[in-house]
Amino acid sequence: MRKRGFFQDVQDLSNIIKPIKDSITLLEGKYANLADCFFSLAQLGAAIKKIPELEHKMFRQHCIKSFNERFKEFDFDEHLLAYYLHPGYQGKYTDKIIYLYFI
User: pLDDT tens across 11-68, in order?
Assistant: First the structure.
């Protein structure tokens, strides 16, 4: 019998879906810019890194693979510069993006 329950699995899934939902809401806004897009991608990368590797190994690997494919589309100096100049940056998430990208 599994040690983890259904509700814990749902909680883990919701921790990934929330940054996606927040990103869509933010980017559909009238004043969204490139920095907001990259910032949302950084938050998603941080959420993916928090997925428990032992309990959700295949799901985590799939998320990392999908994230890396999308990140390649944004891996330009201009996008990174917009992210660093964004007022909400404050040194957050950079190490998590680089970690996921090289897995």
Answer: 888 888 888 898 888 888 888 877 777 778 888 888 888 888 888 888 888 888 988 8
Task: Identify the domain containing residue 65 by its residue range.
Answer: 27-101
41 lies in a domain?
yes
DSSP result, the chain: --SS-HHHHHHHHHHHHHHHHHHHHHHTSTT--HHHHHHHHHHHHHHHHTS-TTTSHHHHHHHHHHHHHHHHHH-SHHHHHHHHHSTT-TT-SHHHHHHHHT-
The pTM of the full predicted model, rounded to 2 decimals, is 0.65
Does 12 map to a domain?
Answer: no
